Amino acid sequence: xxxxxxxxxxxxxxxxxxxxxxxxxxxxxxxxxxxxxxxxxxxxxxxxxxxxxxxxxxxxxxxxxxxxxxxxxxxxxxxxxxxxxxxxxxxxxxxxxxxxxxxxxxxxxxxxxxxxxxxxxxxxxxxxxxxxxxxxxxxxxxxxxxxxxxxxxxxxxxxxxxxxxxxxx
Length: 169
Description:
By secondary structure, the chain is an alpha+beta fold. Helix content is about 15%, strand content about 45%.
């Protein structure tokens, strides 16, 4: 079920290490606070089998971006009946917020969390192959550790309420 939010459109831009755009799409702003942006977007590709779930065209994504944290979190809901499919987390450099745009540098490492708490670490080999300095690599690994701790209580985790409790965005 889709909630009705203000329809302020934000462009999301995923970049590679050199800052080159590799993917972009639009989302609707839900909330903007110091250091955090929450938006709603809808999967705009053909249906895609993805690690024992199917991402379907029109699936609802709640997406949280942070200006000081080295990750983003996507909470995924089914287009047909609204059930929670899971969370997809990208390890990234902190997001850059502009008036109508969010951009981030993807660091390849991803964490997929299923509603039952099972977790799948993705693209570790790709991350290891990136030409990163030690400080960036350390911050990325720390971000992964933080994400893993966030999902220790997956049975009660919901992105919007979790964001409302964050004191240090």
